[in-house]
Protein backbone atom coordinates (compact mmCIF):
# COMPACT_ATOMS: atom_id res chain seq x y z
CA UNK A 1 0.00 0.00 0.00
CA UNK A 2 1.19 3.50 -0.82
CA UNK A 3 2.29 6.00 1.81
CA UNK A 4 1.88 9.79 1.58
CA UNK A 5 2.97 12.74 3.75
CA UNK A 6 -0.49 14.29 3.48
CA UNK A 7 -3.83 12.67 2.73
CA UNK A 8 -6.96 14.71 1.96
CA UNK A 9 -10.18 12.75 2.47
CA UNK A 10 -12.90 14.18 0.20
CA UNK A 11 -11.94 16.24 -2.85
CA UNK A 12 -14.82 18.72 -2.68
CA UNK A 13 -14.70 22.40 -1.82
CA UNK A 14 -12.44 22.14 1.24
CA UNK A 15 -10.27 19.26 0.02
CA UNK A 16 -9.53 20.86 -3.35
CA UNK A 17 -9.10 24.37 -1.86
CA UNK A 18 -6.47 22.98 0.51
CA UNK A 19 -4.72 20.99 -2.24
CA UNK A 20 -4.59 24.12 -4.43
CA UNK A 21 -3.29 26.32 -1.61
CA UNK A 22 -0.56 23.76 -0.78
CA UNK A 23 0.40 23.45 -4.45
CA UNK A 24 0.62 27.18 -5.27
CA UNK A 25 2.71 27.74 -2.15
CA UNK A 26 5.18 25.01 -3.19
CA UNK A 27 4.40 22.85 -0.17
CA UNK A 28 4.10 19.67 -2.26
CA UNK A 29 7.47 20.06 -3.98
CA UNK A 30 9.27 17.64 -1.69
CA UNK A 31 6.22 15.96 -0.17
CA UNK A 32 3.55 13.60 -1.43
CA UNK A 33 -0.18 14.28 -1.30
CA UNK A 34 -3.06 11.83 -1.88
CA UNK A 35 -6.66 12.97 -2.42
CA UNK A 36 -9.34 10.36 -1.78
CA UNK A 37 -12.52 11.25 -3.66
CA UNK A 38 -15.47 9.00 -4.36
CA UNK A 39 -17.12 10.88 -7.25
CA UNK A 40 -16.57 9.77 -10.87
CA UNK A 41 -16.70 13.19 -12.48
CA UNK A 42 -16.51 16.85 -11.56
CA UNK A 43 -19.19 19.18 -12.92
CA UNK A 44 -21.08 22.22 -11.65
CA UNK A 45 -23.06 20.96 -8.65
CA UNK A 46 -23.13 24.00 -6.35
CA UNK A 47 -23.23 27.77 -6.57
CA UNK A 48 -21.21 29.35 -3.77
CA UNK A 49 -22.02 32.91 -2.73
CA UNK A 50 -20.60 35.11 0.02
CA UNK A 51 -19.62 38.65 0.91
CA UNK A 52 -16.00 39.12 -0.02
CA UNK A 53 -14.57 40.23 3.32
CA UNK A 54 -11.22 38.57 2.54
CA UNK A 55 -9.22 37.82 -0.57
CA UNK A 56 -9.43 34.31 -2.04
CA UNK A 57 -7.93 32.48 -5.04
CA UNK A 58 -11.06 32.20 -7.17
CA UNK A 59 -11.98 35.63 -8.55
CA UNK A 60 -11.76 34.09 -12.04
CA UNK A 61 -14.55 31.59 -11.20
CA UNK A 62 -17.11 34.28 -10.40
CA UNK A 63 -20.42 34.33 -12.25
CA UNK A 64 -21.53 37.72 -10.92
CA UNK A 65 -20.87 40.34 -8.22
CA UNK A 66 -23.42 42.70 -6.64
CA UNK A 67 -23.31 45.46 -4.05
CA UNK A 68 -26.93 45.99 -3.03
CA UNK A 69 -29.53 43.50 -1.88
CA UNK A 70 -33.06 43.35 -0.53
CA UNK A 71 -34.95 41.45 2.18
CA UNK A 72 -38.71 40.96 1.76
CA UNK A 73 -41.26 40.13 4.41
CA UNK A 74 -45.06 40.31 4.48
CA UNK A 75 -44.68 43.92 5.71
CA UNK A 76 -42.68 45.05 2.66
CA UNK A 77 -39.24 45.14 1.08
CA UNK A 78 -36.10 46.54 2.68
CA UNK A 79 -33.20 47.58 0.45
CA UNK A 80 -29.66 47.32 1.85
CA UNK A 81 -27.15 49.61 0.15
CA UNK A 82 -23.67 48.19 0.49
CA UNK A 83 -20.47 49.73 -0.83
CA UNK A 84 -17.99 47.92 1.41
CA UNK A 85 -18.01 44.20 0.64
CA UNK A 86 -19.19 42.89 -2.75
CA UNK A 87 -21.38 39.78 -2.77
CA UNK A 88 -19.87 37.22 -5.13
CA UNK A 89 -21.19 34.03 -6.69
CA UNK A 90 -18.83 31.27 -7.75
CA UNK A 91 -19.58 28.56 -10.31
CA UNK A 92 -18.34 25.28 -8.76
CA UNK A 93 -17.71 23.86 -12.25
CA UNK A 94 -15.18 26.62 -13.01
CA UNK A 95 -13.68 26.18 -9.51
CA UNK A 96 -13.16 22.40 -9.95
CA UNK A 97 -11.65 22.89 -13.45
CA UNK A 98 -9.26 25.58 -12.31
CA UNK A 99 -7.96 23.51 -9.40
CA UNK A 100 -7.79 20.18 -11.24
CA UNK A 101 -5.92 21.74 -14.20
CA UNK A 102 -3.32 23.10 -11.79
CA UNK A 103 -2.81 20.21 -9.38
CA UNK A 104 -2.82 17.49 -12.07
CA UNK A 105 0.46 19.00 -13.30
CA UNK A 106 2.09 18.11 -9.98
CA UNK A 107 3.42 14.54 -10.10
CA UNK A 108 3.47 14.43 -6.28
CA UNK A 109 -0.32 14.67 -6.09
CA UNK A 110 -2.37 11.52 -6.74
CA UNK A 111 -6.10 10.81 -6.68
CA UNK A 112 -7.62 7.64 -5.17
CA UNK A 113 -11.19 6.35 -4.97
CA UNK A 114 -10.88 4.39 -1.76
CA UNK A 115 -9.09 5.00 1.51
CA UNK A 116 -8.21 1.26 1.71
CA UNK A 117 -5.69 1.79 -1.10
CA UNK A 118 -3.48 3.81 1.28
CA UNK A 119 -1.35 3.19 4.35
CA UNK A 120 -2.28 6.10 6.62
CA UNK A 121 -0.01 5.28 9.58
CA UNK A 122 2.54 8.01 8.94
CA UNK A 123 0.36 10.56 7.13
CA UNK A 124 -1.20 13.80 8.27
CA UNK A 125 -4.87 13.45 7.33
CA UNK A 126 -7.18 16.32 6.41
CA UNK A 127 -10.74 15.02 6.52
CA UNK A 128 -13.76 16.59 4.83
CA UNK A 129 -15.98 13.49 4.70
CA UNK A 130 -19.15 14.14 6.71
CA UNK A 131 -19.58 12.07 9.90
CA UNK A 132 -22.44 9.58 10.06
CA UNK A 133 -24.40 10.47 13.17
CA UNK A 134 -27.93 10.73 14.42
CA UNK A 135 -29.30 13.95 12.96
CA UNK A 136 -32.75 13.63 14.50
CA UNK A 137 -34.09 16.88 15.88
CA UNK A 138 -31.25 18.98 14.46
CA UNK A 139 -31.80 22.05 12.30
CA UNK A 140 -30.67 22.10 8.66
CA UNK A 141 -30.75 24.64 5.89
CA UNK A 142 -32.21 22.63 3.01
CA UNK A 143 -33.02 23.95 -0.42
CA UNK A 144 -33.40 23.54 -4.14
CA UNK A 145 -32.32 26.12 -6.69
CA UNK A 146 -32.96 26.40 -10.41
CA UNK A 147 -31.21 28.69 -12.86
CA UNK A 148 -33.87 29.94 -15.26
CA UNK A 149 -33.58 31.80 -18.55
CA UNK A 150 -36.37 33.95 -19.98
CA UNK A 151 -36.75 35.17 -23.55
CA UNK A 152 -37.46 38.76 -22.39
CA UNK A 153 -35.38 40.91 -20.03
CA UNK A 154 -37.15 40.63 -16.70
CA UNK A 155 -34.64 40.86 -13.86
CA UNK A 156 -32.93 43.88 -12.37
CA UNK A 157 -29.39 42.47 -12.26
CA UNK A 158 -28.03 45.37 -10.16
CA UNK A 159 -29.62 44.06 -6.94
CA UNK A 160 -30.17 40.56 -5.57
CA UNK A 161 -32.82 39.34 -3.17
CA UNK A 162 -31.21 37.66 -0.17
CA UNK A 163 -34.43 36.53 1.51
CA UNK A 164 -38.06 36.77 0.52
CA UNK A 165 -40.18 35.63 3.47
CA UNK A 166 -43.44 36.61 1.81
CA UNK A 167 -44.34 32.97 1.21
CA UNK A 168 -45.89 29.90 2.81
CA UNK A 169 -44.06 29.21 6.16
CA UNK A 170 -45.79 25.93 7.21
CA UNK A 171 -44.77 26.49 10.89
CA UNK A 172 -41.08 26.56 9.90
CA UNK A 173 -38.78 29.20 8.44
CA UNK A 174 -38.99 29.52 4.67
CA UNK A 175 -37.68 32.04 2.16
CA UNK A 176 -36.81 32.40 -1.51
CA UNK A 177 -33.39 33.65 -2.65
CA UNK A 178 -32.94 35.19 -6.11
CA UNK A 179 -29.61 35.89 -7.77
CA UNK A 180 -30.12 37.69 -11.11
CA UNK A 181 -26.96 36.89 -13.11
CA UNK A 182 -28.19 38.88 -16.14
CA UNK A 183 -31.44 40.60 -17.10
CA UNK A 184 -32.81 37.27 -18.37
CA UNK A 185 -31.03 34.68 -16.24
CA UNK A 186 -31.35 34.07 -12.49
CA UNK A 187 -30.83 31.41 -9.86
CA UNK A 188 -33.95 31.09 -7.71
CA UNK A 189 -33.84 28.98 -4.56
CA UNK A 190 -36.49 27.81 -2.15
CA UNK A 191 -34.82 27.53 1.28
CA UNK A 192 -36.05 26.05 4.56
CA UNK A 193 -34.55 26.25 8.04
CA UNK A 194 -36.06 23.21 9.72
CA UNK A 195 -35.57 19.69 11.01
CA UNK A 196 -35.13 17.12 8.26
CA UNK A 197 -37.75 14.69 9.61
CA UNK A 198 -40.48 16.71 7.88
CA UNK A 199 -40.65 15.36 4.32
CA UNK A 200 -43.72 17.49 3.57
CA UNK A 201 -41.48 20.55 3.10
CA UNK A 202 -39.63 18.91 0.23
CA UNK A 203 -42.06 19.62 -2.61
CA UNK A 204 -39.40 22.04 -3.84
CA UNK A 205 -40.43 21.94 -7.52
CA UNK A 206 -44.01 22.96 -6.76
CA UNK A 207 -42.77 25.74 -4.43
CA UNK A 208 -40.44 27.12 -7.13
CA UNK A 209 -43.06 26.91 -9.85
CA UNK A 210 -45.61 28.79 -7.74
CA UNK A 211 -43.12 31.48 -6.69
CA UNK A 212 -41.87 32.08 -10.23
CA UNK A 213 -45.36 32.27 -11.66
CA UNK A 214 -47.26 34.08 -8.91
CA UNK A 215 -44.66 36.27 -7.23
CA UNK A 216 -42.12 36.95 -9.97
CA UNK A 217 -44.92 36.86 -12.59
CA UNK A 218 -42.82 34.86 -15.03
CA UNK A 219 -44.78 32.50 -17.28
CA UNK A 220 -42.27 31.29 -19.85
CA UNK A 221 -38.80 30.18 -18.94
CA UNK A 222 -36.39 27.33 -19.42
CA UNK A 223 -34.31 25.69 -16.70
CA UNK A 224 -30.57 25.65 -17.45
CA UNK A 225 -29.26 24.16 -14.22
CA UNK A 226 -30.45 22.89 -10.85
CA UNK A 227 -28.94 22.14 -7.46
CA UNK A 228 -30.29 20.71 -4.25
CA UNK A 229 -28.63 20.40 -0.87
CA UNK A 230 -28.78 20.44 2.89
CA UNK A 231 -26.30 22.27 5.10
CA UNK A 232 -26.13 21.11 8.75
CA UNK A 233 -26.68 24.03 11.14
CA UNK A 234 -24.86 22.17 13.91
CA UNK A 235 -21.31 21.00 14.39
CA UNK A 236 -20.56 17.38 13.58
CA UNK A 237 -19.08 15.25 16.35
CA UNK A 238 -15.80 13.48 15.61
CA UNK A 239 -13.42 11.51 17.76
CA UNK A 240 -10.17 13.45 18.24
CA UNK A 241 -7.32 11.66 16.44
CA UNK A 242 -3.70 12.78 16.71
CA UNK A 243 -2.88 12.76 13.01
CA UNK A 244 -6.29 13.93 11.71
CA UNK A 245 -7.53 17.50 11.14
CA UNK A 246 -11.11 18.05 10.02
CA UNK A 247 -11.72 20.62 7.29
CA UNK A 248 -14.74 22.08 5.48
CA UNK A 249 -18.21 21.52 6.89
CA UNK A 250 -16.79 18.52 8.77
CA UNK A 251 -14.25 20.87 10.34
CA UNK A 252 -16.81 23.36 11.70
CA UNK A 253 -16.36 25.92 8.90
CA UNK A 254 -20.10 26.48 8.48
CA UNK A 255 -21.57 29.55 10.12
CA UNK A 256 -24.51 28.05 12.01
CA UNK A 257 -26.90 30.97 11.65
CA UNK A 258 -26.49 31.29 7.88
CA UNK A 259 -24.89 28.20 6.32
CA UNK A 260 -22.10 30.33 4.81
CA UNK A 261 -18.99 28.14 4.58
CA UNK A 262 -17.05 28.90 1.39
CA UNK A 263 -14.92 31.82 2.56
CA UNK A 264 -14.25 30.19 5.95
CA UNK A 265 -12.90 27.18 4.05
CA UNK A 266 -10.53 29.50 2.14
CA UNK A 267 -9.31 31.14 5.37
CA UNK A 268 -8.81 27.71 6.99
CA UNK A 269 -6.79 26.47 3.98
CA UNK A 270 -4.51 29.52 4.23
CA UNK A 271 -4.06 28.93 7.97
CA UNK A 272 -3.12 25.27 7.41
CA UNK A 273 -0.63 26.11 4.65
CA UNK A 274 0.98 28.91 6.71
CA UNK A 275 1.49 26.42 9.56
CA UNK A 276 1.94 23.21 7.59
CA UNK A 277 5.40 22.37 8.99
CA UNK A 278 4.01 22.35 12.56
CA UNK A 279 0.33 21.81 11.88
CA UNK A 280 -0.14 18.98 14.42
CA UNK A 281 1.01 21.19 17.29
CA UNK A 282 -0.66 24.40 16.00
CA UNK A 283 -3.77 25.78 17.67
CA UNK A 284 -6.85 24.34 15.90
CA UNK A 285 -8.46 26.90 13.59
CA UNK A 286 -11.88 28.12 14.71
CA UNK A 287 -14.25 30.68 13.16
CA UNK A 288 -14.87 32.13 16.64
CA UNK A 289 -16.34 30.87 19.90
CA UNK A 290 -18.47 34.03 20.22
CA UNK A 291 -20.20 33.24 16.91
CA UNK A 292 -20.78 29.65 18.02
CA UNK A 293 -22.43 30.92 21.22
CA UNK A 294 -24.53 33.65 19.53
CA UNK A 295 -25.59 31.34 16.68
CA UNK A 296 -26.70 28.63 19.10
CA UNK A 297 -28.89 31.15 20.95
CA UNK A 298 -30.22 32.29 17.55
CA UNK A 299 -31.05 28.69 16.57
CA UNK A 300 -32.78 28.05 19.92
CA UNK A 301 -35.01 31.04 19.19
CA UNK A 302 -35.57 29.78 15.63
CA UNK A 303 -36.66 26.34 16.90
CA UNK A 304 -39.14 27.79 19.41
CA UNK A 305 -40.46 30.79 17.50
CA UNK A 306 -40.18 30.12 13.74
CA UNK A 307 -43.03 32.58 13.14
CA UNK A 308 -40.93 35.44 14.60
CA UNK A 309 -37.90 34.82 12.37
CA UNK A 310 -38.86 36.85 9.28
CA UNK A 311 -39.17 40.04 11.39
CA UNK A 312 -35.98 39.16 13.34
CA UNK A 313 -34.00 38.79 10.09
CA UNK A 314 -35.53 41.98 8.69
CA UNK A 315 -34.60 43.96 11.81
CA UNK A 316 -31.08 42.55 11.78
CA UNK A 317 -30.61 43.89 8.25
CA UNK A 318 -31.69 47.36 9.41
CA UNK A 319 -28.29 47.65 11.15
CA UNK A 320 -25.63 49.47 9.05
CA UNK A 321 -24.76 47.22 6.10
CA UNK A 322 -21.05 47.08 6.97
CA UNK A 323 -21.88 45.94 10.52
CA UNK A 324 -24.30 43.18 9.54
CA UNK A 325 -22.06 41.87 6.74
CA UNK A 326 -19.01 41.75 9.02
CA UNK A 327 -21.10 40.02 11.70
CA UNK A 328 -22.45 37.38 9.30
CA UNK A 329 -18.96 36.86 7.87
CA UNK A 330 -17.45 36.46 11.35
CA UNK A 331 -15.27 39.56 11.08
CA UNK A 332 -17.13 41.86 13.51
CA UNK A 333 -15.65 43.59 16.55
CA UNK A 334 -17.36 43.78 19.95
CA UNK A 335 -19.07 47.13 19.15
CA UNK A 336 -20.49 45.70 15.93
CA UNK A 337 -21.68 42.58 17.81
CA UNK A 338 -23.48 44.79 20.33
CA UNK A 339 -25.04 46.74 17.44
CA UNK A 340 -26.53 43.51 16.09
CA UNK A 341 -27.59 42.14 19.51
CA UNK A 342 -29.48 45.40 20.15
CA UNK A 343 -31.56 44.74 17.01
CA UNK A 344 -32.83 41.43 18.46
CA UNK A 345 -35.93 41.03 20.67
CA UNK A 346 -33.96 41.02 23.92
CA UNK A 347 -36.25 39.12 26.26
CA UNK A 348 -36.73 36.18 23.85
CA UNK A 349 -32.98 35.92 23.28
CA UNK A 350 -32.11 36.17 27.00
CA UNK A 351 -34.62 33.39 27.78
CA UNK A 352 -32.95 31.16 25.17
CA UNK A 353 -29.35 31.49 26.30
CA UNK A 354 -29.74 28.37 28.44
C1 LIG B 1 -25.94 22.91 -3.09
C2 LIG B 1 -25.13 23.67 -2.05
C3 LIG B 1 -24.97 25.05 -2.18
C4 LIG B 1 -24.21 25.75 -1.22
N1 LIG B 1 -24.08 27.11 -1.35
C5 LIG B 1 -23.30 27.77 -0.49
C6 LIG B 1 -23.10 29.18 -0.63
O1 LIG B 1 -23.73 29.83 -1.47
N2 LIG B 1 -22.22 29.81 0.18
C7 LIG B 1 -21.52 29.13 1.15
O2 LIG B 1 -20.70 29.74 1.84
N3 LIG B 1 -21.75 27.82 1.36
C8 LIG B 1 -22.60 27.12 0.57
N4 LIG B 1 -22.80 25.77 0.75
C9 LIG B 1 -22.19 25.14 1.94
C10 LIG B 1 -20.73 24.72 1.71
O3 LIG B 1 -19.96 25.80 1.21
C11 LIG B 1 -20.62 23.56 0.76
O4 LIG B 1 -21.35 22.48 1.26
C12 LIG B 1 -19.18 23.13 0.53
O5 LIG B 1 -19.18 22.30 -0.60
C13 LIG B 1 -18.60 22.42 1.74
O6 LIG B 1 -17.33 21.94 1.40
P1 LIG B 1 -16.80 20.56 1.96
O7 LIG B 1 -15.50 20.31 1.33
O8 LIG B 1 -16.92 20.53 3.43
O9 LIG B 1 -17.87 19.47 1.43
P2 LIG B 1 -18.02 18.97 -0.07
O10 LIG B 1 -17.75 20.07 -1.02
O11 LIG B 1 -19.33 18.28 -0.12
O12 LIG B 1 -16.85 17.91 -0.20
C14 LIG B 1 -16.87 16.65 0.41
C15 LIG B 1 -16.33 15.65 -0.62
O13 LIG B 1 -16.20 14.36 -0.01
C16 LIG B 1 -16.55 13.39 -0.97
N5 LIG B 1 -16.91 12.15 -0.26
C17 LIG B 1 -18.00 11.90 0.49
N6 LIG B 1 -17.92 10.65 1.02
C18 LIG B 1 -16.75 10.12 0.63
C19 LIG B 1 -16.08 8.89 0.87
N7 LIG B 1 -16.61 7.94 1.65
N8 LIG B 1 -14.87 8.68 0.29
C20 LIG B 1 -14.31 9.65 -0.50
N9 LIG B 1 -14.89 10.85 -0.76
C21 LIG B 1 -16.07 11.09 -0.20
C22 LIG B 1 -17.72 14.02 -1.73
O14 LIG B 1 -17.92 13.43 -2.99
C23 LIG B 1 -17.26 15.48 -1.82
O15 LIG B 1 -16.55 15.73 -3.01
C24 LIG B 1 -23.59 25.05 -0.14
C25 LIG B 1 -23.81 23.69 -0.02
C26 LIG B 1 -24.57 23.01 -0.94
C27 LIG B 1 -24.79 21.52 -0.74
Structural features, described:
The protein is an alpha/beta fold and 354 residues long. 27% of the residues lie in helices and 28% in strands. The protein has a 7-stranded mixed beta sheet with strand order 7-6-13-14-15-12-16, with helices on both faces. Strands 9-3-2-11-17 form a 5-stranded parallel beta sheet, with helices on one face. The protein has a 3-stranded antiparallel beta sheet with strand order 4-8-5. The radius of gyration is 21 Å and the shape is globular. The site of flavin-adenine dinucleotide (FAD) has 27 residues, from helix 1, strand 4, strand 16 and helix 4.
Give every kind of bound small molecule, once each: flavin-adenine dinucleotide
| Low-pLDDT segments | none
Determine the structural class based on helices, strands and strand pairing. Answer: alpha/beta
Strands side by side in the biggest sheet: 7-6-13-14-15-12-16
| Annotated CATH architecture of the largest domain | 3-Layer(bba) Sandwich
Task: Give a concise summary.
The protein is an alpha/beta fold and 354 residues long.
What key attributes describe this structure?
single chain; 354 residues; five-stranded parallel sheet; 28% strand
SSE layout and pairing:
Layout: E1 2-3, E2 6-9, H1 13-24, E3 33-36, E4 47-51, E5 62-66, E6 68-73, E7 76-80, E8 87-91, H2 92-103, E9 109-112, E10 118-119, E11 124-127, E12 139-149, E13 159-164, E14 173-182, E15 185-195, H3 204-215, E16 222-232, E17 244-246, H4 262-274, H5 289-304, H6 309-316, H7 321-328, H8 334-341, H9 346-351
Parallel strand pairs: 1-10, 2-3, 2-11, 3-9, 6-13, 11-17
Antiparallel strand pairs: 4-8, 5-8, 6-7, 12-15, 12-16, 13-14, 14-15
Flavin-adenine dinucleotide is lined by residues 10-15, 36-39, 46, 48-50, 128-129, 227, 229, 231, 248-250, 259-262, 265.
Amino acid sequence: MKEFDYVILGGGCAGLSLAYELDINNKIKNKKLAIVEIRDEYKRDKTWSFWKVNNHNFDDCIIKTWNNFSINSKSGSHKVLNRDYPYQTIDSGLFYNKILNKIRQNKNIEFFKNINQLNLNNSIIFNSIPAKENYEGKIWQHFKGIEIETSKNIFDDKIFNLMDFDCDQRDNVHFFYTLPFTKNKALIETTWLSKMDNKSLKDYDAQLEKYIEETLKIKNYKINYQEEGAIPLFYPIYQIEKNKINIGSAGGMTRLSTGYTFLNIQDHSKYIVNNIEKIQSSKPYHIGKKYEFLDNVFLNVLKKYPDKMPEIFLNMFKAPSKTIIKFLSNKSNIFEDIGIILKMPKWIFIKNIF
